[in-house]
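Figure 2 data, in text form.
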Amino acid sequence: MEILNPIPEPLKPHLALAPDALFDDSGSVDDQCDLDALVPLMLAEDVRFFDLPMLARLRRRPYHAVTLAGPFDLKQLAADHRAQTFRSESSLSRSGTPKLDRLLLRLEGEVFGHLEGHTLKIYAPTPEAAEAAAKEFRRYLKPHAVATPCFYIISTEPHGPTAETVIIERPAPVSTEELALNYGVDFPLWEQQWREAMYRKPSGLSLLYGPPGCGKTSYLRALMARLLDKAVFYYMPVSEVEMLSSPRFVRFWVEQTRRHPKKHKLAILEDAEELLLPRDAGSRDKVSNLLNIADGFLGDHLKLHVVATTNTPMNKLDAAIVRPGRLIGIREFRRLNRVEALRLAEAKGLALADQPDFSLAELYCGAVSTPALSAERQIGFAQ
């Protein structure tokens, strides 16, 4: 998991900044403009107390902005610009570790820097000045880490949603041969067609279903490795599905698109029965939002693919979810018959019990056999 640098010593609260650090001797905010008149000119969601001094300074003045994407060496950047720091915001983890969330800097020549998370935005009177300042801050960029399979967990902080990196540590089958052994000889072809279908559309919904222990989660780990250079993955609990549709998160998803411009975004919803079963008064809004993300205007804007998993048979799901043309891809993760299980056991040196079919959990971990899921098998793609 990525860990941000703690707040450097100079930014701790007991060392206060001079009150005129941003405005020098030319007057206070109230002297220069009426903030009550300024706020209505901005979108409500764009105006924050943290930003008001800079907005007041820039009002009715020309400015040009350049955005620089991190992550940055926050400790060094903050220490080097201690004298130019007017505001800072930080948070403490449950263990008491401080994390720097925002900095507001006033640099030379009416140039401002606004650092938030992994993004630094430079404001300057001319495009040349903004570009020059942004280039200076490039020296604080952290070097690119070696690419490794990972996903992001989305959490809500006081200043907005953030994405924390989780590295995939447990191995999963990544070759087409391994996929065929674990999921059936037809699986590699299905995966190829599914990926092509996703690449053709900016957004959509795919469904992986089948009994527990048949490899849905393991396959998603493998997919994160197989699509390392083509997709970025986000995991979220079903209880937090509003992250996909709430207006409060639109800016977050747009920023993620900007940070990963050449990659598809895939949101993983595991055990999503709550969203997929026939709608009632308690789930109607959640199901409707999921459908809007799948093939509505919201999905086209967010450019987000949703991959949901469920243990429920297809014929038990909401008819609107499974109607023809709704889903990008559908795949049943079924129990392997004895011939398939024998092929896998021989390749992996596994013992095979005397039973007609097997889940992957039974084969690899010696789990207790469970009855096969009684469901009509459906494998395919929306046309």
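Caption note: Confidence is low (pLDDT under 50) at residues 1-45, 370-383.
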